[in-house]
Design a protein that fits this description.
Layout lengths: L1 E5 L5 E5 L11 E9 L2 H7 L16 E8 L11 E4 L9 H4 L24 E4 L2 H4 E3 L6 H4 L5 H11 L7 E5 L3 H12 L4 E6 L2 H9 L5 E4 L5 H8 L5 E6 L4 H9 L1 E9 L11 H4 L5 E4 L7 H9 L9 E6 L3 H10 L6 E5 L1
Helix pairs in contact: 5-6
């Protein structure tokens, strides 16, 4: 089969590899029908993910068809259409039983990082009972592509803010995760969504798709003044930080009202500092971490019921044979590009 691997020097190769085999009773083999490139893949190539193993097939965001299951897999059978969770988790350890699957002692972020991922024709999925979710009949592969990663991350960001009916939620970063966070915060009952970015194309996408009520280009306007003017000088009830820079980290707590929650789903390439004297008295709660994507079934139900839709995130479709070019295009992210779908 064809598969994309990365080398220690940061180069990519589309190579021929054997089709993966069942190695554990909890495994499933999935024929990949559609996958996507994630910013996390770029972090691996640039050397920012220490646990990533060179020579590994990249990719962790995909949908496909089950072709074989191990003897312990009871929820799925050959022929089932599935979406995959970006996290590998056993479902039985201390953290899994409490819903913190990102911290599974037997799993974590493995696919495309420390074991072969999905930017290939076939992929082996460990702990398939928990790592794969069967698609409802009316949900297409395209509809479900982002359920186990980008949509889950956006939902996680909104969930961390404990959205209450009528809340004003500010989302910093109108990339795929931020756009999903806006949509999910509205689903949870937010009364007003503020989208903040420096990319006019992405802000337009947020506005045109009805994901937000207000857009702010933070490179052109004083974001804090605008947010305060919209909230009776209080600040946002919750802030999702989905951009991941030093400036956006500071902005996240500056625009939050006293006693608000700041949910950080961004991945930073350098350490951030909490300037506690500057924020003293705001009584803020910070929540951070990798996505605990425990809601795949619920998200698929929302998609099935037309309450969520992420099709608009796909800016371009390319074949697996073109994936090296797709990486170049994705890395540049020009002309408002959000996500590239890789098809079989």
């Amino acid at each position: 089969m064809k598969a994309l691997i990365w080398n220690k020097d940061g180069t990519l190769e589309l190579v021929d590899k054997p089709i993966p085999q069942i190695t554990d009773p909890n495994d499933a083999i999935v024929k990949v029908t559609m996958s996507s490139i994630c910013t996390s893949d770029l972090h691996i190539i640039s050397g920012c993910v220490p646990k990533a193993i060179p020579g590994t097939v990249l990719g962790h965001e995909f949908v496909g068809e089950v072709v074989e299951t191990g003897s312990a897999v009871k929820n799925l059978k050959a022929g089932d259409r599935v979406s995959a969770n970006c996290e590998t988790f056993c479902g039985e350890c201390f953290f899994c039983k409490r819903g913190y699957i990102n911290n599974c002692i037997n799993g974590g972020w493995k696919l495309g990082c420390s074991i072969d991922g999905c930017q290939a024709e076939y992929v082996r999925v460990p702990y398939a009972n928990t790592g794969l979710t069967k698609l409802p009949e009316n949900v297409t592969y395209k509809n479900a592509l982002f359920v186990g990663d980008i949509l889950a991350s956006g939902y996680f960001g909104a969930e961390m803010c404990e959205v209450k009916k009528g809340d004003t939620i500010a989302v910093i970063g109108a990339g795929p995760v931020g756009l999903c966070a806006m949509q999910c915060a509205k689903l949870m009952g937010a009364g007003k969504i503020i989208a903040i970015d420096i990319d006019e194309n992405r802000l337009k996408i947020a506005k045109d798709n009805g994901l937000c009520d207000v857009i702010i280009n933070s490179s052109l306007h004083n974001t804090l003044d605008i947010v305060l003017s919209m909230t009776d000088n209080r600040g946002a009830d919750g802030v999702v930080e989905a951009a991941g820079t030093k400036d956006t980290f500071r902005l996240s707590w500056e625009i939050a009202r006293p006693n608000a929650i700041v949910g950080i789903v961004a991945m930073y390439e350098e350490s951030q500092i909490l300037p506690l004297p500057d924020m003293y008295g705001k009584n803020l709660t910070f929540k951070t971490g990798g996505v605990d994507a425990v809601h795949s079934r619920k998200l698929l139900e929302y998609i099935s019921d037309d309450r969520l839709n992420t099709d608009f995130l796909i800016s371009k479709e390319m074949k697996l044979s073109e994936i090296k070019d797709a990486y170049k295009i994705f890395a540049n992210k020009g002309n408002g590009l959000l996500k590239i779908a890789i098809t079989d």
